[in-house]
Amino acid sequence: MKFVSIDVGIKNLSFCLFNKKSDSNYYQILAWDNIDLTEKYESKCIEIEKNSLCGKPAKFIKDSKCYCLKHSKQTNYLLPASEFQLSFLNKQKIQKLIEIANKHNISYEKPCKKLELVNTIHEFSVTNCFEAIVKTNANKVDLVTIGKNIQHKFDHLFKDHIETIETIIIENQIGPLANKMKTLQGMLSQYFIMKNNNIRIEFISSSNKLKEFIKENDAKLDYKQRKQLGITTCIEIVSSEFQYADWATFVQNHKKKDDLSDCFLQGLWYIKNKL
């Protein structure tokens, strides 16, 4: 039996695909990740680290190749700097431009005119500097773009499972500040319904995932403390229970432990209380 637990987000949507084989007494995780719905493609570092692809989120790009901060420093390219931007260069006096050129060993004709030196420095930067990868602001992404990215990413993520997934559980979005998230909740539901009309969709209260782990003295925890409790609980479980052990390092090293933990614990609650 397969089901997917989803923690709703535009910039950070986390999902966990659980599965229990017919001859097994426990559930395993087939897929678990955090994805960005603001971009169709996520830029990953292409450098090799310990005989495998680095795969960390890329910060810079050069000649269509992406690099994380660590690996960008291991190349001969320079990081982007304001002193190379045309808007900055055009405002500088000739003496400042000469200082920038000398600092980076940029050759130029002497005597030189300001416009020529500005162009020389800028051309140097185009050839020798990385271009920063600018992340999209989640608040500025329209719903049509989000919908297209859901289709593109989910088609790839669930292509081998969509016909055999029985249930999708999605954290229910409530409150006046969650209008866009509520819309996204509906879009996610519609995606799975259109892919497999037999799939059951359930909306789960956010309070459920920590119910079994909150002690009496935890009742007054604030939002940040509850998030930390979720992370701690998740890591303890995946590190101690053999069926999840392969994912322990993945969670511990991930920058979005909180969202990964939320969808995982929501899935555990569903297993214990609904299945």
TrEMBL record:
Family matches, as Pfam families: Ydc2-catalyt
TM ranges: none
GO molecular function, one term: nucleic acid binding
Domain Mitochondrial resolvase Ydc2 catalytic: 4-44
Protein name: Mitochondrial resolvase Ydc2 catalytic domain-containing protein
Species whose genome carries this gene: viral metagenome
